[in-house]
Amino acid sequence: MRFFITSNIKNNPALRILILAILTGCLLYWIGNWFFYHSKFGLSYNKMFLYFFSDPSFPEPLPISQLFEDIHISMFMVIVLCTLLSSLFLQSQKNKFQQTVLILTLFGTGITEVLLSLVIYFISPVFIYAKIFAFLFFQITFLLIFIITLRFYLLGKGETYTEKSLLYTVVLLFSTSAVLFTFLSFFLFISKVGITPQSISEYYLGNPTKFMKPKSLSTLLESTVPHLLVMSVFIFTLIHFILFTTFKGKLLSGILLFSCAFFESTSGLFIRLGVEPFSYIKLISFIGFCVGVLFLSFKVIISVGSSIKS
Asked: CB 185: neighbour CB atoms within 10 A?
């Protein structure tokens, strides 16, 4: 995010082209999100009820592991996209108060829409209406910020200055969202894989007595390869924000966090190939990853929070 603070858009056409390409990707996401949401959930109470509870006459809830997996993926997408778009939006020279409100609304509606799936599932289907409203509000806010940002980068006349308090707000929102994401990842791991080496081995190798089939290598690769990419992006962003703190163990924490993410993502392949001791490595690396993300996120939250107050 530092190069956005000191960049001169007018004298750097390559940077402008890169940013416009990123904004084009954001627009494609916004358009695709309408189709995805409509095909998966629908934009009505009845269609969304069917997704969570199937036929109202014979309600059968969505498997909890599938619920957490959907929330896990959606939360990551919302966090990354909101952080990216907000970082570009900071340069738009809008009123500081307006920028703050729009950024808070973007993060708030996006994360609320995702978490409302838990409320619908565990508390009451009546919150389906709130989920639909949050989605629509998120899409509208996303589009508004996109238009303002696009207009600036098309007509921007040179170097700009970003209020540090606004930058700190984005960093604080990302770090807080990272804490939520980590807890969701933990519950997903427990509900899907288990929390013991034996349950981890059974998940990958199967168990005939429990009617569990072994995972195919193609299925594991389809999960492992993109997971390595998204975790790298997530960790890079979090470590990047550690620069805003006085924490001295930046390099070591980055290496350890990347190592935990790598072994957590790839251990399943080794387990499937018959190296069962990797079930211990997967469990330890997953716990290490969660602890590491929480530790660094709280470091950022405390440091940035103090900076905002001062």
From this structure: 20
Quick one: DSSP state of residue 8? B
Q: What is the DSSP letter of 253?
A: H
For 145-186, what is each residue's pLDDT tens digit? 999 988 888 876 555 556 677 888 899 999 999 999 999 999
Question: Which contacts (CB < 8 Å, 24+ apart) does range 130-139 have?
Answer: 131/41, 131/48, 132/43, 132/44, 132/45, 132/48, 134/109, 135/37, 135/43, 135/109, 137/105, 137/109, 138/106, 138/109, 138/110, 138/113, 139/30, 139/33, 139/34
pLDDT of 247-258, one tens digit each?
Answer: 788 888 889 999
Count of C-beta atoms within a 10 Å radius of residue 103: 23
**CA dihedral angle for residue 285, residue 290, residue 292, residue 296, rounded to 10 degrees:** 160
Distance of CA 245 to the CA centre of its chain: 22
What CA–CA distance (Å, rounded) separates 174 from 181?
Answer: 10
C-alpha 220/C-alpha 259 separation (Å) is: 19
Among residues 54, 194, 183, which one has the least CA distance to residue 114?
183
Task: Report the C-alpha gap between 8 and 305 in whole angstroms.
Answer: 29
Q: Is the pTM of this model over 0.90?
A: no
Cα dihedral 84→86→90→93 (10° resolution):
120
The closest alpha carbon to 150, from 242, 11, 30, belongs to: 30
Residue indicated by tokens 């690396």:
285
**CA dist., res. 139 & res. 32, Å (int):** 11
CB 75 within 8 A of CB 186: no
What is the rounded distance in angstroms from the CA atom of residue 197 to the CA atom of residue 178?
A: 26
